[in-house]
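Pasting as-is:
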Amino acid sequence: MIPDNLPGNQGSFRIMHSTLIGLPSPCAIRADKFPGVRMGSGPVIGEHCIIFGNVFIGDRFRCGDNVLIRDNTAIGDGVTIGNWSFIDTDVVVADRATIGDEVWIPRSTKIGCGVGIGHNVRLMTEPVDGSPARRSYRNIILEDGCTIGKDAVIGPGVCVGAGASVEAGATVTDDVPPDVRYCNVQ
């Protein structure tokens, strides 16, 4: 599937085989109309990707293979997403963010400009123990220019401040102030 705004610009983008763009969410399938995908110029999208409907993607988007992007998501200009990454619904990814391979980004996460997320990072918006009393959902905010090292885990409700650096393998359960290097690797 190719979004309505792309056929006239077919020379300016590359989409590999077996990729679905504009797939309706389960609740939109029953609707008479559902929103498609708005995509800027020059995207490169890998194989076997699925991009749901009601997604906005800016210019110069780069996406690896086997990526899933859920509905109600906005992705800015110059964003790169690695292979096997998952972006859930209601996520905002600002300009020039880089997301590594096998990254899990849960619903309602906000990612600022120029954020770098390493490979195999997990952002968790619900407590891991899954107990009913603790199932409160809390979104994650990664402010402009912060970096998250590979294999890091960011816990529910955490805000990583602008310019902060979370070291590879760290587990973050509390907010990280701006311009701080955070390391709690065990």
